[in-house]
Fold this sequence. Notes:
It is a single chain. By secondary structure, the protein is mostly helical. Among the domains are: 38 residues, no CATH class; 180 residues, no CATH class. Helix content is 66%, strand content 2%. The protein has 14 helices and 2 strands. The chain has a two-stranded antiparallel sheet with strand order 1-2. A hairpin with a 2-residue loop joins strand 1 and strand 2. Helix 5 packs antiparallel against helix 6 and helix 8 runs antiparallel to helix 14. The longest helix has 28 residues.
Amino acid sequence: xxxxxxxxxxxxxxxxxxxxxxxxxxxxxxxxxxxxxxxxxxxxxxxxxxxxxxxxxxxxxxxxxxxxxxxxxxxxxxxxxxxxxxxxxxxxxxxxxxxxxxxxxxxxxxxxxxxxxxxxxxxxxxxxxxxxxxxxxxxxxxxxxxxxxxxxxxxxxxxxxxxxxxxxxxxxxxxxxxxxxxxxxxxxxxxxxxxxxxxxxxxxxxxxxxxxxxxxxxxxxxxxxxxxxxxxxxxxxxxxxxxxxxxxxxxxxxxxxxxxxxxxxxxxxxxxxxxxxxxxxxxxxxxxxxxxxxxxxxxxxxxxxxxxxxxxxxxxxxxxxxxxxxxxxxxxxxxxxxxxxxxxxxxxxxxxxxxxxxxxxxxxxxxxxxxxxxxxxxxxxxxxxxxxxxx
Length: 391
């Protein structure tokens, strides 16, 4: 075979192959030699650590810098530092042979109820058509205002509770009584309440129930305060037979009522007046207003009281505080205003502070005294009911 230039075709093919091989060899010679690759494994070891003080209470606020891990005398890197709480701590205590049966039962009940609520909510959500067609909106969402607030109020209080609980457990700066009270009462209850009023364009006069009350209501409110203190102690004694309270915890609760670190005037401001204003605005104002069309008044009274108790999340304070919440909600329903309950709340806390500082205790009174105090309390509440709705 010959090309058009008279050169045999096989010579051209051989020449092209030689040139191509020469170029390939030259290019390969310019490349650096391949580096060898070695593969290895790094084991991440989980180490569980509990840091307790002399009273065996957990020390909060620790960081990675507070720990050093040694293996055969050589320091090891800490890859991640994860604080554990609640269910994780309960599981770890069970595995290490130090279970707390009461807290395990409470955790199981709360977890089960939460799971049931989530399943029911998911089932109800899946039956709605607006999750398929996003352009469909419920009328309350379109209108906004108070109707939307009534649908969203429980979400607000759930988030408020979660923030309160998480902040108390993880922010060391909130461990002092003054800082914790200011954060809970002002940053959570007061600010969130004002945000709800603004966001949903609520009528503040209706939320607070601003109208004139008869003098019999104010007299009955003040008469009910000492009687309610005695009734609350009787209720606590009954609950103590069901959920026994450690003696040291009772002393700690007493110190929380009147912290020694605060001057007396600040104790009354931070422990009596400020909680009364902020908590009544939030619970008997916003929460009760949001549930106005959802439950029977008795159910609303019990529900708001229970939510009020849960916000005071120490296990041994939930029941007595929930009872106080039920009383305050009942006063708000009977008077149509938060102000008689606000006065009761402030007077009740002030009376408790005075008894604690004066060393007066009603925990060892006879049951006949408790019954008499209960009668006075019922008389006072009946008077509030009788004159509360009269203008």
